[in-house]
Specification:
131 residues; alpha/beta; 2,3-Dihydroxybiphenyl 1,2-Dioxygenase, domain 1; 4-stranded mixed sheet; 2 helices; 7 strands
Length: 131
């Protein structure tokens, strides 16, 4: 194993059921497989990296997540192709998920940066980038 590679990412979520439904489909499209599941969490794994979603305790739900606060801004994933970015874009729109920066899509990241940006149920921004 190469030192420095990400082992796992753990995200606390406000509604585990909604997050599992949203992220499960997306992560499986990206090649992840279900990994662990317990009463208050679930994870998906790709290679040696896994992503975990854990239900936030009720006492910590008063202040919702916002990517402009200190902490995580967004997660960016490598896509397989521009066609996959387009496919995921269409699937998100069919699911009623708003595409961010629609006026600049698919080049919201700048010229030559082909990507789609959207948010999960807690408004965590996700980016899928074509090679």
């Amino acid at each position: 194993m190469a030192a420095g590679l990400i082992h796992h990412i753990e995200l606390n979520v406000s509604d585990l059921k909604a997050s599992v439904s949203f992220w499960g489909w997306f992560l499986e499209e990206m090649g992840y497989s279900p990994f662990q599941k317990w009463e208050k969490g679930q994870s998906w794994k790709l290679g040696d990296t896994y992503i975990v979603f854990v239900q936030t305790e009720q006492r910590f739900l008063a202040v919702p997540y916002h990517r402009s606060r200190v902490g995580l801004n967004h997660l960016a994933f490598h896509g397989r192709s521009r066609e996959q970015v387009d496919y995921i874009t269409g699937q998100m729109e069919e699911k009623g998920v708003a595409i961010l920066y629609k006026d600049k899509h698919p080049y919201a990241g700048g010229p030559g940066h082909y990507a789609v940006y959207f948010e999960d149920p807690d408004r965590i921004k996700i980016e899928l980038v074509a090679p």
